[in-house]
């Protein structure tokens, strides 16, 4: 092993290197906390996806006879690019469920006037379902959501079980899409002033924009998207997480710098000799960079392996049996780990590299 190599330094200073690696290990564990926050997004992913495929519109109460609504429906049905599924304007709430973070949330809901409309929607979004037992006042949900609420096929879902829905419904089909959505089938022919609008050629903002152009200034409302509502609801979690990451990073940066400062001060003579035998300041900074980055890479590998292993065990033994899930990776987790790690590593490399590059053997 070369005397100037980073591994040689780590091998010769195992105790102090282990402390630094542990501190850097802590920065990567920020990804674990980020994955917990992102797990809430996982529960809502399908609701957001389906909402983009089936835009909900409703008549406004100021249009007392709902003439504008009916005129808009006629125009939408005349559009060959659109499919219109009318539904009751009666409000339907979802079923509460316990998320991975340990608190309850309310699921999204889709309501269909009959089994055929439900099938049309499921075919559109690619969901397979057994429709043989579906009838008026049926409920369909994912197996994950059913496990989360200890429900099985044939169970009655009523007001006494979950205070977010009104009336009595039967769980008549389970699907495998892992959505946390309740799909109701109930016919209310005298109260159909809401409708889902779907298209084989458009979705999301494009579909909403097209529907908006058809509605014009008539008294018909396009309901807010699930994505927009959830972004507002969860924004406080995102803010708190990143504030916590920054605070953790500052504390770790101070600790790592303290640990390394004492050791690099003792190595001033060593680096002075390097300068005396011809190593440039650039080479000195590169050596410091390689030493610190090698410890960081070791910490990242260990931490990433541990996060994956712990996540696997938690999912298999705790969360999946209860219809919950902790993501193995998430954008938020990766961002949190990267921010924390860089806030510790960058100043450490810069300050220690500059300090050692100034070592001068003539001053000893």
Number of strands: 11
Number of helices: 11
Q: Shape, please?
A: elongated
Largest sheet: 5 strands, mixed
CA distance, first residue to last residue: 28 Å
Helix content: 55-70%
Rg over CA atoms, rounded to whole Å, is 29 Å
Portion in beta strands: 5-15%
Structural class: alpha+beta
Element pattern in H and E: HHHEHEEEEHEHEEEEHEHHHH
Quaternary assembly: single chain
In the predicted model, the low-confidence regions spanning at least 5 consecutive residues are none
Number of domains: 2
Mean pLDDT across the residues is 87
Kindly report the spatial arrangement of strands forming the biggest sheet: 5-9-6-8-7
Overview in brief:
With 364 residues, the chain is an alpha+beta fold. Helices cover 56% and strands 14% of the residues.
Structure description:
The chain has 364 residues and is of the alpha+beta class. It folds into two domains: 6-41 and 231-363, no CATH class; 44-225, no CATH class. The protein contains eleven helices and eleven strands. It has a five-stranded mixed sheet. The chain has a four-stranded antiparallel sheet with strand order 2-10-1-11, with helices on both faces. Helix 1 crosses helix 10, helix 2 packs antiparallel against helix 8 and helix 8 (226-266) packs parallel to helix 11. The protein starts with 5 loop residues before the first helix and ends in a 7-residue tail after the last helix. The model has no long low-confidence stretch (mean pLDDT 87).
């Amino acid at each position: 092993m070369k005397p100037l190599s980073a591994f040689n330094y780590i091998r010769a200073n195992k105790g102090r290197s282990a402390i630094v690696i542990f501190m850097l290990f802590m920065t990567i564990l920020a990804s674990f906390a980020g994955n917990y926050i992102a797990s809430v997004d996982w529960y809502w992913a399908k609701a957001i996806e389906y909402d983009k495929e089936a835009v909900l519109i409703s008549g406004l109460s100021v249009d007392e006879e709902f003439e504008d609504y009916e005129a808009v429906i006629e125009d939408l049905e005349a559009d060959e690019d659109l499919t219109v599924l009318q539904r009751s304007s009666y409000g339907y709430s979802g079923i509460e469920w316990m998320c991975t973070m340990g608190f309850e949330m309310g699921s999204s809901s889709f309501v269909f006037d009959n089994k055929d409309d439900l099938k049309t929607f499921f075919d559109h979004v690619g969901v397979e379902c057994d429709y043989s037992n579906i009838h008026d006042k049926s409920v369909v949900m994912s197996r994950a959501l059913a496990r989360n609420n200890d429900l099985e096929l044939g169970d009655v879902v009523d007001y006494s079980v979950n205070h977010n829905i009104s009336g009595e419904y039967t769980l008549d089909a389970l699907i495998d899409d892992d959505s946390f959505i309740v799909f109701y089938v109930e016919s209310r022919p005298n109260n159909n002033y809401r409708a889902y609008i779907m298209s084989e050629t458009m979705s999301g903002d494009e579909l909403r924009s097209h529907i908006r152009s058809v509605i014009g200034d008539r008294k018909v409302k396009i309901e807010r998207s699930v994505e927009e509502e959830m972004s507002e609801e969860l924004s406080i979690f995102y803010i708190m997480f990143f504030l916590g990451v920054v605070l953790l990073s500052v504390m770790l940066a101070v600790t790592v710098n303290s640990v390394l400062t004492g050791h690099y001060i003792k190595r001033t003579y060593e680096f002075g000799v390097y300068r005396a035998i011809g190593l440039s300041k650039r080479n000195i900074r590169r050596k410091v960079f390689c030493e610190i980055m090698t410890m960081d890479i070791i910490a990242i590998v260990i931490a990433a392996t541990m996060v994956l292993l712990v996540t696997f065990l938690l999912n298999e033994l705790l969360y999946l049996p209860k219809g919950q899930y902790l993501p193995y990776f998430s954008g938020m987790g990766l961002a949190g780990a990267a921010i924390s790690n860089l806030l510790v590593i960058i100043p450490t490399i810069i300050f220690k590299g500059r300090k050692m590059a100034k070592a001068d053997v003539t001053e000893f």
